[in-house]
């Protein structure tokens, strides 16, 4: 399924009044995981700005021990500080990478802004080296714009 075909499906989930916010987040994760072959782990982390930590939210994929990540640590922690998308074509070449699983080969993290504040991020791991393109970034920015409507 193409990104253009997925966009209305994401919007439909966000507008579904029968689901809680976490159920909507999980449904978006499931949709992306099911629809894009190289999205092998899809999840959200949310910022606690006082503690300067990220906390795992809804996700689909292998279980992770990384439920709390300090700002600045790993790819997710770096995005919490930089407020910029971070695409890692090959995690083995990244110094500040927190290994989740030996199967993870690449990662993309896109910050989630609400009223100009970075409140979290969508994090996607892939078992493929270098699968993410500019189109992935634009699509995930769209996803986060839709998610921001929940806050």
TrEMBL record:
Residues 60-148 form the GAF domain. Pfam families: GAF. SUPFAM superfamilies: GAF domain-like (SSF55781). It comes from the Bacteria. Transmembrane segments: none annotated. Belongs to the free Met sulfoxide reductase family. PANTHER family: FREE METHIONINE-R-SULFOXIDE REDUCTASE (PTHR21021:SF15), GAF/PUTATIVE CYTOSKELETAL PROTEIN (PTHR21021). This is GAF domain-containing protein. It comes from Flavobacterium granuli.
């Amino acid at each position: 399924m193409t990104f253009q075909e997925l966009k209305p499906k994401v919007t439909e989930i966000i507008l579904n009044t029968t689901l809680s916010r976490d159920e909507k987040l999980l449904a978006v994760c499931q949709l992306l995981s099911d629809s894009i072959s190289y999205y092998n782990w899809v999840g959200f982390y949310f910022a606690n700005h006082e503690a300067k930590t990220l906390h795992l939210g809804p996700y689909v994929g292998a279980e992770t021990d990384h439920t709390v990540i300090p700002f600045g640590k790993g790819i997710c922690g770096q995005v919490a500080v930089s407020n910029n998308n971070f695409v890692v074509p090959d995690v083995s070449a990244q110094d500040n990478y927190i290994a989740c699983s030996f199967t993870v080969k690449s990662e993309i993290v896109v910050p989630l802004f609400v009223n100009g504040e970075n409140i979290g991020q969508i994090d996607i791991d892939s078992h493929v080296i270098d699968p993410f393109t500019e189109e992935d970034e634009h699509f995930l920015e769209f996803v986060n714009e839709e998610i921001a409507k929940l806050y």
